[in-house]
Design brief:
The structure is a single chain. With 297 residues, the protein is of the alpha/beta class. It has a single domain, classed as Rossmann fold (3-Layer(aba) Sandwich), CATH 3.40.50.1820. Helices cover 37% and strands 16% of the residues. It contains 10 helices and 8 strands. Strands 1-2-4-3-5-6-7-8 form an 8-stranded mixed sheet, with helices on both faces. Helix 5 crosses helix 7. The longest helix has 22 residues. The protein is globular. The model has no long low-confidence stretch (mean pLDDT 89).
Length: 297
């Protein structure tokens, strides 16, 4: 049975792996300094033992992007994924300003209340920038880092913070409409792999949550993690950098920049892989992460 707080479109899922993952999503009222009311925060938790792993998703995404990777990691380590503030299926409250700072505060309260021990923090795309920012602010919470095709040197275009109505709504709605078009096309193609349709459905399901447009607009106008690049050299945690070589969203040179600027880091490039190794190559990605953890002892 699917959690009742998810959009009704969840019932359209047909892929067994996606269904099994969604059925295990949980929600907790999380007290923070950001609002008087607790924030209903969605997450998933599987596995036991070892150093806990916490997975952070990318921009305009949700914990569903880890539906293939998380179960593999959970075979050896306690593994968590959480929907960041303003994203995924976590509640969006009108009084909250959605920005990297509020995301970080919310994430810390999640870590303190549910995990409260040093973690392996894994961030994909924007989640990588979130992971770096969190680590620099709360170093005692993080044992080591894994960055997957991470933002940090490349960020949102500077014009995004100057969007004003109605163009801000139009710009955000464009993100949703292009996925609707992709789903409609995929649905009428003969002999289409159900996993392709499922991937599109999972990528857009959170967009049906209340407050999605407003939270996206508010976050984009902050400029996101545009000021992070100059702080990356301050990272002193052991770091694994995983990078799909065929990434068409971030410059390939960003991988080398992370490796250069993070002193205690290792870089592994994944062949025939794009911007989302956690979806495109979950087996290989999980093997590299678990090997990295085991080498730390």
């Amino acid at each position: 049975m699917f959690p009742s707080f998810l959009p009704s479109q969840v019932n359209q899922l047909k892929d067994a792996e996606a269904i099994a993952f969604v059925e295990n999503i949980e929600r907790i009222p999380l007290a923070t300094s950001l609002s008087q009311q607790p924030i209903l925060t969605t997450y998933i938790h599987q596995g036991r033992g070892g150093t806990p792993i916490l997975l952070l998703h990318g921009f305009d995404s949700s914990i569903l992007e880890f539906r293939l990777l998380l179960p593999l990691l959970a075979t050896q380590n306690e593994t968590w994924a959480v929907d960041l503030l303003g994203f995924g299926f976590t509640q969006r409250q009108k009084a909250i300003k959605y920005s990297p700072d509020t995301i970080k505060i919310h994430l810390y309260e999640f870590w303190k209340n549910l995990i409260n021990q040093p973690i392996v923090l894994v961030g994909a795309s924007m989640g990588g920038a979130t992971a770096i920012d969190f680590t620099l602010t709360y170093p005692k919470a993080v044992k080591s880092l894994v960055l997957i095709n991470s933002l940090g040197y490349t960020s949102a275009p500077t014009f995004s913070q100057y969007l004003f109505p109605p163009f801000d709504f139009v710009a955000v709605e464009y993100l949703r409409q292009r996925q609707i078009i992709a789903l409609n096309i995929a649905s009428i193609l003969p002999n289409i792999d159900i996993k392709i349709i499922s991937a599109i459905q999972c990528a857009m399901l959170h967009q049906e949550m209340s407050g999605w447009h407003d939270a996206m607009i508010a976050y984009v106008k902050t400029g996101g993690y545009r000021d992070l690049a100059n702080r990356i050299t301050q990272v002193d945690k052991q770091t694994l950098i995983l990078w799909g070589e065929d990434d068409n969203m971030l410059p390939s040179g960003d991988a080398e920049k992370f490796h250069r600027d993070i002193t205690n880091s290792a870089l592994i490039k994944l062949k025939n892989c794009g911007h989302a190794p956690q979806i495109e190559q979950p087996q290989t990605t999980s093997q590299h992460i678990l090997q990295f953890i085991n080498q730390q002892g």
